[in-house]
Amino acid sequence: MNYMPRIGDLAPDFETLTTTGKLSLSEYGKDSWVILFSHPADFTPVCTTEMTGFALEKDFFAANNTKLLGLSIDSIHAHIAWVNAVYEKTGVLFEFPIIADIDMKISKLYGMLQPSESETAAVRAVFIIDPNRKVRLLMYYPLNVGRNMEEIKRALIALQTSDANSCAMPLNWKAGEKVIVPAPKTVDTLLERKASDLEMVDWYLAKRNL
Ligand code: BEZ
């Protein structure tokens, strides 16, 4: 089986050629979150909708200290031609860098090449990487199913909110909703909790507003 970074691992660093020039992950992600995502191929319909979706959320990601980094196993020339074609047809410009992973090095490093699905195209992977370059969340979708932009945004905000408030997020949590408070680990904190005004389903499951 191919290597695949997992949740909590240091995201493997790399230096590569992209549509905005040469970059390394460590420099690009210095002091910011990075969403590294792969798509199977340029000039394909599902990929075009996804890349357009990322481009349209430019302000959201910038406002949340997050940089985008796309990838496919295509050449820089193919990337540039695709960026140009979409821009001319729709007015949407893919401003974030797109890696030309023509030698498949990064796709293999991140388990994006899943040969039972395709020998030559990366699957639709998403890695959410924090400012310490730690992999915090990953998603993998097959070639024929586009991702859900709302879920990508929700997951990013959930991670950032959890870090800032030492809490966890319940099923379907959205920004602005109550969060889960870590369960008490001592009898004293249990009694404190019982006397609190937290929304409590049971002693180990309590929620609070932020
Ligand atoms: C697409 O983006 O439409 C696509 C790419 C590769 C395989 C199937 C669909």
How would you sum up this structure, described in words?
- With 210 residues, this protein is an alpha+beta fold.
- It has two domains: 15-152, Glutaredoxin (3-Layer(aba) Sandwich); 166-210, no CATH class.
- Helices cover 32% and strands 23% of the residues.
- The protein is built from seven helices and ten strands.
- The protein has helices spanning 25-28, 45-56, 58-63, 76-90, 105-109, 149-165, 187-195, and strands at 15-18, 21-24, 33-38, 66-72, 98-100, 124-129, 135-141, 179-181, 199-202, 205-208.
- The strands form three sheets. It has a five-stranded mixed sheet. A three-stranded antiparallel sheet has the order 8-10-9, with no helix packed on it.
- The longest helix is centred in the C-terminal third of the chain and has 17 residues, at 149-165.
- The model has no long low-confidence stretch (mean pLDDT 97).
- The structure holds benzoic acid.
